[in-house]
Amino acid sequence: MHRFQTTLLLLAGTSFLLIGCDKAAPSSATAASTAASESNTEPSTTSAPEPASAPEPAADPAPTPEPTPEPEPASEPTPEVASDPEPAPSKGPIIAHLPGGVPLNETMKPLKDHPEYWVADISVAEVAEGEAPPAAITDDTQAVSITMTAWNMHGDHGHLLLSREMVIPLDDKMVFPGWQEALSGQRVGDTRKIWASSKTVPSQQMAQGAPVVFDIALMGVDQFITVPAPAELPGDPVGEAELQNSDSGLQWYDVVVGEGASPAADDRVKVHYSGWLVNGTPFDSSKNSGVPFTVDMRGGVIPGWLEGLKTMKVGGTRKLIIPQQLAYGWNPRPGSPIPPGATLIFDVEMLEIVDEDAPADSGGGK
Questions:
Q1: Active centre residues (catalytic)
Q2: Is 155 among the domain residues?
C-alpha cells in the first residue's frame, strides 16, 4: 500500500509538470482514489497494472512532449530560400554589379579628366623574371589591336552588344571622350574594364538610358608610322626631288615633272601605278598586266589618289605617300593585303587625259 502511494505521488507530480495545475490536479486525485480502491472501471485511459510498474510513469513524458514538434514549422522556409536563385540565370549574363549606376567594384576609379567613366584592371599580364615588360599604350600610340566586349547594363545584368577583335585608333572621337585616357598605360596582355555613363554613350550605338560596360583585352599597340628616308623608299628613286606636304597629311615627290595639262575635276585620266607598304611589301601594280588604269577624278578611288593626281601633269611621275586617313583607314576591304591603319606608297605615272565617254576602272587606289 505504501508503495502504491509513492507511485501515485510521482504520477501526480509528473502530471502537474506536464499538463499544468488547473486541470491536472483533479485528474490525479481521481486516479489516486481509483488505484487505492483497485477499481479498473473508472478511467478509460488508465489501466490498473500501470501504477504497479515504476518505470512507466517516466515513459509518459516521452510520447507526450508537445514542445518537440514545434520546431518543425521553422524548417519550412529552408526549401523556399534554396529555390529562389534558380530563375536568376534566365535574366542574362551577370557581368558586373552596378547598383544605382555606380560601380560596386572597389578597384574601379573615375577618370581624372572624364569622371563619367570608371576604369579598373581586371587581369594583368604576367612577366617572367628576366623578360622585358610587354608594350604599353603611351602618348605616341597611334592605334591598338584589341578584343572588345561590350554590354548594355540593366541593373546588375548585361545585354551583350558585341564581342570581337579589331584594330582601332587611339582617338577620342572614334569611341567616346576619354577613350585614350581610359586605356593609357595598359599593357599588351592586360584586360581593362570601362564603365560608361548612359549620358555619355552615343544613343545611336547603344541602348538609350543604359550605361555600357566594356572589357578591353589589349593584343598589340602601333606607334606612329615613320616614313622611310628618301633613299629607302620602295619603287622609283626620288633623286633630287623635294618632299612636298599638304595640310591633309599627304606627301609626295615629283620624280618627273610632266609637260602636259593637269586634269580637271570631272576628267578621266589613264595612269600606270605600283603600290607598297612602308616596309617595302608590294600589294598591287597595273604594270603586272601592262594595262593602264583609268581614274575618274570625280571619285571612286581613295582620297589620297584624288588629291595627289589633281596637280599632276600628263607625262609626269609622282611618288605619293598616303597616310591611313586618306587611304583605307582602319577597316580595309576583307581579304585585302593592306593592314588596318597602313600608310601606303604609290608610284603613279600620268599617261593621258582620256575622252569623257571612256569608262573608269576599278582598282588601284579604290
A1: 273, 283-284, 302, 328, 346
A2: yes
